């Protein structure tokens, strides 16, 4: 059975018990198509007046619009995500072509096409960059200070950094193998510019735990967050002479990202879901 297979792979008894206790949804092609149909039948979300998406790939749009939002930026800004088909896509249970074709009649087709195009964008970059995608200096050959502090990186992986939003995200990732887009980008930024840790340690961890792991998407997003994808994007960071100077220089950026998460979840519902120790703390 699965527990014997996990033991054969070298997992500890505690890790096996934790994994076996997780309730995973149905898998396979039929489950993927059912999930796609459920998404197509669902009512498109309306724009939230309080949602912010300052650091989403939304072409400079920095506020909500009235009524229906075909790109569903509000949903992408939330910790629950939107389509939730990525794990099926990653293992071939449904194709990008099928999703694209089925979504053409949907009022949120623009948002669906946008997400799929980003997927193709990262694939094209992976083909272009080759092995440079996995270098510490990245495709942009960016040289700057890094840390390999084991204690800090493990605290990040376990969701024990002391920063509530980061910890909630990392615990959800550990327990479920999934994390919404905003959570992935913000936790990655925190690891790189909040702790100064080698970005590849984060990419390795995501590779290990994500159910929807995709090499081009994973490493493509990590080099962008770490600002090692292009020489000019990494100039601000490489100008810093020490790791301490780098972290101080990006402190405001990190606070800005965490503030957006607080605005998008003013009641702290997401934090309480994954951080039981904060369940009784006022929002």
What does this structure look like?
By secondary structure, this protein is an all-alpha fold. It contains 16 helices and no strands. The chain has helices spanning 2-8, 13-21, 29-41, 73-77, 86-90, 96-103, 109-129, 150-158, 164-176, 181-194, 199-209, 215-225, 235-238, 243-249, 251-264, 269-274. Helix 11 (199-209) runs antiparallel to helix 12. It is globular and about 55 Å long. The model has no long low-confidence stretch (mean pLDDT 86).
**Mind summarizing the main beta sheet?**
none
Mean pLDDT: 86
Roughly what fraction of the amino acids lie in strands? under 5%
Number of strands: 0
Structural class per helix/strand content?
mainly alpha
What is the overall silhouette?
globular
- Residue runs with pLDDT of under 50 for 5 or more positions: none
Helix count?
16
The radius of gyration over CA amounts to 19 Å
N-to-C terminal Cα separation, in Å? 44 Å
SSE topology string: HHHHHHHHHHHHHHHH
> Approximately how much helix is present in the residues?
55-70%
Question: Could you name the key traits of this structure?
Answer:
mainly alpha, 16 helices, globular
């Amino acid at each position: 059975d699965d527990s014997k297979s996990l033991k054969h792979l070298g997992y500890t008894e505690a890790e096996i018990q934790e994994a076996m206790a997780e309730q995973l949804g149905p898998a396979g092609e039929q489950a993927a198509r059912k999930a796609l149909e459920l998404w197509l039948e669902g009512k498109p979300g309306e724009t939230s007046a309080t949602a912010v998406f300052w650091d989403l790939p939304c072409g400079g749009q920095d506020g909500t619009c009235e009524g229906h939002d075909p790109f569903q930026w509000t949903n992408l800004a939330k910790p629950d995500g939107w389509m939730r088909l990525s794990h099926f896509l990653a293992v071939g249970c449904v194709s990008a072509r099928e999703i694209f074709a089925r979504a053409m009649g949907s009022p949120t087709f623009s948002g669906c096409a946008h997400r799929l195009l980003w997927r193709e964008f990262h694939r094209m970059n992976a083909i272009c960059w080759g092995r440079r995608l996995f270098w510490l200096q990245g495709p942009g050959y960016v040289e700057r200070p890094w840390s390999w502090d084991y204690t800090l990186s493990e605290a990040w992986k376990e969701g024990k950094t002391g920063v509530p939003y980061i910890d909630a995200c990392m615990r959800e990732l550990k327990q479920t193998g999934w994390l919404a887009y905003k959570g992935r980008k913000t936790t990655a930024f925190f690891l790189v510019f909040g702790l100064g840790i080698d970005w590849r340690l984060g990419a390795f961890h995501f590779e290990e735990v994500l159910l929807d792991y995709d090499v081009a998407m994973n490493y493509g997003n990590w080099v962008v967050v770490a600002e090692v994808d292009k020489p000019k994007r990494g100039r601000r960071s490489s100008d810093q002479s020490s790791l301490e100077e780098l972290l101080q220089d990006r402190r405001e950026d990190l606070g800005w990202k965490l503030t957006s998460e607080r605005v998008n979840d003013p009641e702290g519902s997401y934090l309480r879901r994954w951080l039981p120790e904060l369940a009784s703390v006022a929002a």
